[in-house]
Amino acid sequence: MKSETDISPVAISGRALLTDLYQLTMAYGYWKSGRAEREAVFHLFFRHSPFQCGFTLTAGLAPTIEFLQAFQFTENDLAFLDTLRGNDDQPLFDRGFLDYLETLRFSCDVDAIPEGTTVFPQEPLLRIQGPILQCQLLETALLNLINFFHLDDENLDPKTWCRWPILSGGFEVELEELRRAVQAESG
Q1: Which residue among 65, 78, 116, 175 is least packed, with the fewest CB closer than 10 Å?
Q2: Choices 3.40.47.10, 3.40.50.720, 3.20.140.10, 3.40.50.880: CATH for 4-186
């Protein structure tokens, strides 16, 4: 049986490219307009409970925090970004922006609901506050990491239905784990 440590942050640490081109071009726009350090706040939440359940338990906080602490662009990341071209066949990103990314280190504040806490739709799981450029770059990776752990809860047996008694309401909720969940690298 797999545990959270099998999705090791070591395997994804420094993986600043766990994002999409939209986030990178938005970050570039903030940098180019001199707004990269402007304060921003974003909340990570879910709209609907997985498995039609009405609630979920928070999961994946420790690996997410470790990912954030190790967040940085590697030499290979920057070399790849340097190869990207726009429609005009010019480099997509200025050298100055790539130099900025090379020295970028995570400096945001994170507030999170403790691991294993019952949460409901529209309730923030994470609150990230810091430079808007960093918040923008982190959004896709954080969504992917947190979603993975909520959809790959190892406490559920993937081959059978699992019944969890809900003491407060006196009823049972049936949950079935996904047989295949996406990994962080699939974002």
Answers
A1: 116
A2: 3.20.140.10
